[in-house]
Specification:
mainly beta
């Protein structure tokens, strides 16, 4: 399977031979959001790659796909210009230390609708997720795949303590800053309508950057 990174984009993304390469060189193709009561990350394009600057901050970055696709795997290439700083990396992912240098989330449509009392009490990020869904569609869950600094977490799966809508799997370990390349094949394809990039430093009060030079979805 050949990389499509060097081809010119058509309509903001690449489509060819079962690979969808997200437009990391075009920030206008992404939807920047914010968490309440948290400082937001800064997003920019540097040398044709997407740069996420973390300053004791956290905020979602979404890419809404033109239509739902069954995703079979993904590849992410980039560089960590620093990492979250932990007094004890063994606490990574726990409440109060829930910072990962990279999470890629797959928004899965389903039957859960945002209505009634749930709509009144739902967190703002939940409402934003529903805004990415096609009219009349509901939500099933968000499947996150994380890069961790804690080698003991490799392969660990969990439902996040903050919401039963969020599932996480640790798919790679990065102990030191520098270049990275992660390829992951899913055991079962995931219906996906949007991609959620999460890069955090709010819990650990960390300052660092992540350069994303390629994000390819395999379908």
């Amino acid at each position: 399977m050949r990389s499509l990174i060097n081809l010119k984009p058509a309509l903001g993304l690449y489509l060819c031979a079962g690979v969808l390469a997200l437009p990391v060189n075009n920030l206008s193709s992404w939807q920047q959001e914010a968490f309440s009561k948290k400082t937001s990350n800064q997003f920019s394009v540097e040398n044709g790659a997407l740069l996420v600057s973390v300053r004791k901050s956290a905020s979602p970055l979404f890419f809404k796909m033109p239509e739902a696709k069954k995703i079979k795997g993904f590849k992410i290439v980039g560089e960590f210009k620093g990492l979250p700083t932990f007094k004890d990396v063994g606490l990574q992912g726990k409440k109060g230390s829930d910072d990962y240098p990279l999470r890629i989330g797959f928004v899965v449509p389903g039957k859960k609708t945002l209505s009634g009392l749930y709509k009144l009490v739902a967190a703002q990020w939940v409402k934003r997720i529903y805004g990415l869904l096609p009219v009349g569609s509901g939500l099933d869950r968000i499947e996150f795949f994380n890069i961790s600094q804690n080698a003991n977490e490799l392969g660990v799966k969990r439902t996040h303590y903050s919401s039963d809508l969020l599932n996480e799997t640790i798919v790679a370990i990065q102990k030191n800053p520098g270049a990275f390349s992660v390829e992951h094949s899913l055991k079962e394809p995931i219906d996906t309508i949007a991609i959620w990039i999460s890069i955090d430093g709010d819990d650990t009060l960390s300052d660092y950057g992540v350069l994303l030079s390629a994000i390819e979805l395999i379908y």
